[in-house]
Amino acid sequence: MSQGGGMHVAIIMDGNGRWARSRGLPRTRGHREGANAVRRVVEAAPGLGIDTLTLYAFSADNWKRPRPEVNALMRLLHRYLRTETAELVERGVRVTLLGRRDRLPSRVLSAAEAAESATRDGTELELRLAIDYSARDALVRAAELLRGSHDPVCLHRFSQALAQAMHAPGLVRDVDLLIRTSGEERLSDFLLWECAYAEFVFTPTLWPDFTGEDLRKAVEVYRQRDRRFGGLSAEGERQAAAG
Ligand code: IPE
Ligand code: IPE
Ligand code: MG
Fold it and tell me: What mean pLDDT do residues 101-107 have?
């Protein structure tokens, strides 16, 4: 658990292409279905004790995909932002964009910024959409912000700079639970710093099939984990005290 008492859950929403391929459909159909899964997790999250949800929607490396797929993804992001904002306001969800803003098609950027501003008073859930995101790139930009500073750089100041590099206020928030769908078990340049002590839950479910119930199960698995942060578990401490 972190600030505010709620959990920070981050999800690598993977497997849209395989979902489509297994049905003989174009990959973009999988991305379209993926948007419905986003709606489901956003709806379920607050009831599960999640106050921050960071979704990996488009990585900086995803620009390498064929142009038609990139265009389709951008169109879907635009559509999601445009059509969901009213509902997000209704649900008290605050949207923030994570990632580089200077390479996005201008209509995607303006839809994202409009969503940020329309939802800015939301208090139920912080929904951070990682678009054109690369954790390494964010770390490099944070280091750049600190260059030439005379004060010693400590973890606190670096965390501040990293938040600033991401256009976020305050400090970066540690991830409590990282979920990746589709059976892949890697970070793919997502939240490298913030996952220092994250618990990882991997599921074979493909993202378009992921439901609120799958999220609940992942949270349940997380709650059974013993997070020690380098120290001892409560049980270990009792044993140590008992000699
Ligand atoms: C995740 O699904 C969505 C994005 C990366 C944008 P993929 O498109 O990576 O689906 P697979 O991994 O090819 O099945
Ligand atoms: C990571 O998935 C990015 C998103 C889910 C947005 P990829 O499918 O792009 O990652 P790799 O290439 O399998 O590592
Ligand atoms: Mg993938």
Answer: 97
